[in-house]
Specification:
Length: 101
């Protein structure tokens, strides 16, 4: 993944029209930008807007890429403080399975 637009497109394809998420999630990737997943709307949408979300996952761009490529385990990233979650943690736990589609 080379940039935020590519990452957004990949996530949009994985989410599809109905992710089953039922909530909103924001990926805050620092200076690289944000990815907002609206799993509550019909159809679901994925944008780069900075809006309030039910859960916000904060991590660096490099760690996000490593996570997406399978070089970084999500639980280890969380335990090491590389990945932070604000809000509904249960929603954030659904993301890995959703994004592997």
């Amino acid at each position: 993944m080379s940039d935020i637009a590519t990452a957004t497109d990949k996530i949009r394809a994985a989410v599809g029209e109905n992710s089953g998420l039922g909530k909103t999630v924001k990926l805050d990737l620092g200076d690289a930008g944000k990815i907002y997943i609206d799993g509550a709307s019909t159809p679901n949408t994925v944008t780069n807007e900075d809006k309030p979300a039910d859960a916000t996952v904060t991590m660096s761009w490099d760690d996000f890429v490593a996570l997406a490529e399978g070089r970084l385990d999500g639980m280890m990233a969380f335990m090491q403080g590389k990945l932070k979650i604000a809000g509904d943690m249960m929603i954030a736990q659904k993301l890995p399975a959703l994004l592997k589609r």
